[in-house]
Amino acid sequence: MREPSVRAAALVLCILSYLLVGAAVFDALESEAESGRQRLLARKRGELRRKYGFSAEDDHELERLALQAEPHRAGRRWKFAGSFYFAITVITTIGYGHAAPGTDSGKVFCMFYALLGIPLTLVTFQSLGERLNALVRRLLLAAKRCLGLRRPRVSTENMVVAGLLVCAATLALGAAAFAHFEGWTFFHAYYYCFITLTTIGFGDFVALQRDEALQRKPPYVAFSFLYILLGLTVIGAFLNLVVLRFLAASTGALERAARRAGPLRLGAPESRGRCPARRPARPGGPASVSHRVHQLELLIPSPWMKVGWLSHSGEPGGLTCSLWSQTHLPCQARTRGDDGCKSSL
């Protein structure tokens, strides 16, 4: 386990370095602008206090009232449409912060609702993402056959490029729609779509927050809800491909460790007599690579843990089943694959 431990430490250092670089860049880009906005706000408040004779207490009270009134421009936030919007942001972990339960009973229900809803949403989007990747793969195969290729094959790189194009089109479509309905620039609308569909959810741009849109614009409300749900599926499927490509490219780091451990050291089903015997994989062949990907899957948590779209079903664009499923699932729940048993779930 020495090499996996070194690899884990290297990944931690990479993440810390990435965070330090990000902090330095954001500091350079945003710090001075923030100071300028603070100075402008202080000057404006001073002008208003001198013009209308506000005291410091009056100024703080007006600020508090303005902050409380801002969310209500969307209309009644807790009628059915607004509550549905809030529920979407909870179970998808977007969490704009544009609304929050105001009662203790609402806070308690929100915690239990998220506890069940988030895992259910992860499983649902994982399944939908696998279906989408399978569809894209079939379309690419059909396109290659139309081009006259004798042995058409869809590589992971093909899938990643196709996924990137689909994601860009999805973001552009949403940006055009939200720029029209919200009065944003196309860039700001594109930024909103990206922040939303990656579940970052800053809340600096939130749709359906103007002119009581939740009550007065039902078609726009329906489009927004549908776009978020479908867009999350598309972005999640693409990020799944990127993660899997990264894992596949990284298996060489565990080549020596995998050979020393042997293909059955981690409790594969053949060692327990629970599945039919299989022929040993050729060193460096597809099966041994898949086995090392499985080992990586056990050793390295997914960088997309928030959404959890690592495939275990053996669908195109996804990994075959993990060693956990090989060890714990009964033989009847698995089917024979190129590299052993794979999950049929």
UniProtKB/TrEMBL annotation:
A UniProt-annotated Pfam family: Ion_trans_2
Subcellular localization(s) per the UniProt record: Membrane
Transmembrane segments: 6-29, 80-99, 111-129, 159-181, 187-208, 220-247
Keyword Transcription regulation included in the entry's annotation: no
GO cellular component, one term: membrane
Region (Disordered): 265-289
UniProt family annotation: Belongs to the two pore domain potassium channel (TC 1.A.1.8) family.
Name of the featured protein: Potassium two pore domain channel subfamily K member 15
Lineage of the organism: Eukaryota, Metazoa, Chordata, Craniata, Vertebrata
UniProt gene name: KCNK15
